[in-house]
Amino acid sequence: MAKKTVLITGASRGIGRELAFVFAENNCNVVLVARSSIELAQLKHHLEAEYDISAHTIVKDMSLPQAPVEVFAELKRSNIDIDYLVNNAGFGDYGLFAETNWERYEKMIALNITSLTHLCHLFVRDRFEKRKKGRILNLSSLAAFQPGPMMAVYFATKSFVLSLSESIGSECKKIGVTVTALCPGPTSTGFGEESKMSASELVSHATIASARDVAWVGYKAMMKGKPVVIEGTKNKFIPFLIRLLPRRLVTWISAKVMRKS
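RESULT FIELD:
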């Protein structure tokens, strides 16, 4: 039986890196996309040495406008057929909305929203729809279910990813394609340090999941075709509680837990 092949963006670190290992362990060839050529080369070597799979690397900054089209074109040139698409690349930033440079937000929206949406469109329209099969895993967040003062744009981008995933997942059922939104809470990935979110009350008091655990939860949910999966038993109650509370109160609570510790 021929091996399946997965494309993973943001594959060099954190959840993306762990997802690469999870897919390799499950006998999938991998296409690894990230900005760092050194980290990708090391990951490729590690995966191919440890598992009976092939790993192809594409060095690309997915926040750039033409990146999705360039990745898709390279796959065609290399005659690589993708069965699973994992949109993992993304970043956040902690701080007051007005005090953050617009360029930072512009890049965040480009990576978290535009690039992810473009890749979904390319693969659904030009690959999965024709074959009547395919699976997509989009990295959203527990942040998607609520407003996020101090990380307003990041929370909003993850709400977009969740809504988009559920919507196109519903549309794609008739063509045999599944779309899963993975919504982890705080995770040990280096994200907290990069986004400066480690300074918040939320991270200082939250239970931090391992990237490995989050990757396995996402993989299993994608393979089952689940539309949404939330990592962590306690985290699963948060969206339910949010629906019961007035929106204004939810925003106030979010502001309290997102303040600096």
